[in-house]
């Protein structure tokens, strides 16, 4: 178990840390994008952090707090742009949704963009409306644009022309090519009243947690994997403490949506990594959704759910990355689509590399 995971599971351990251990914790926390989360955890536990370490953690915490305020401002602007009466409005997802539900994991949590979900039938109208309010498509080529629109569950990312924030507009949580793809209207939505913002829709707590599990366990790259697994651990622990039937209802809900396999992964790896307390009857309820070759996936996930620093890498790390990379791609697309897509992308990258003009001192290969 890495130092960062030990501290996330039991913050009081740092009371006995040497200077070298503090230094290692900062390195691991920074690589995992969790320095702000660590500081929030220490504040909550009233743990005194050495000065040399505190400025690393508090600086990131302040940056993330400003990021949080910016996200709420963007929600206010989106409420103005996407009139619910005309366009059906939007619902917040992922990091912003955690803020709206005031989850413990949202305290100090780093995130890079604003994620929303809209009605699929309104995507074109919403994209046009967002453009009028300063949101423009990021620089991507026509092939990538077509790829997003034909196969994915979201449109290409949008960037605001003045504020430079990034907006991901989803119309579902799974790509059309995923065999478990279903209509997003089956989700449960709730409204949250936010000061200075107004009413904002988001997924219910159960569906938000299920979406978190789906998002994590369809990934092919895990540079934020430990952070997202900690989100699952933190929310499961918090929501179960608020309602003793929450996890049972969560399992029933995941099975109802046909997503029991994703919740199986979430429960298994939060237990194995963070020792999350989950009643045995919930584990038994999800047992039918256990994947084939579970030992292989245990090997893979337990070796990617750690900070990607030298001290935490072993010979297992590249193999685990290889397995999870291809697993993620194969979940998103069947081989008949994936192979041509990857060949096309590889060719385009090679073409760009060898045809790039020498600019600002760049040399042709």
Alpha-carbon distance between the two ends? 44 Å
**Mean of the pLDDT scores?**
90
How many domain modules?
1
Biggest beta sheet summary: 7 strands, mixed
- Name the shape in a single word: globular
Provide the β-strand percentage band: 5-15%
> What is the number of helical segments per DSSP (H or I, 4+ residues)?
16
Rg estimate, integer Å: 21 Å
Helix and strand content put the structural class at alpha/beta
The portion of residues assigned to helices is: 55-70%
Give the neighbour order of strands across the main sheet. Answer: 3-4-5-2-1-7-6
User: What's the total number of strands?
Assistant: 7
The SSE string, one letter per element, is HHHHHEHEHEHEEEEHHHHHHHH
Low-confidence stretches: 359-365
Task: State the main characteristics.
globular, disordered C terminus, alpha/beta, 56% helix
Structure explained in plain terms:
With 365 residues, the protein is of the alpha/beta class. The protein has one domain (3-348). It contains 16 helices and seven strands. The chain has helices at 3-9, 19-31, 35-44, 51-81, 84-87, 94-100, 123-132, 142-151, 205-216, 225-242, 246-256, 260-274, 280-286, 294-304, 316-332, 335-355, and strands spanning 91-93, 114-117, 135-137, 158-160, 166-170, 189-194, 198-203. The N and C termini lie far apart (44 Å). The model is unreliable at 359-365 (pLDDT under 50).
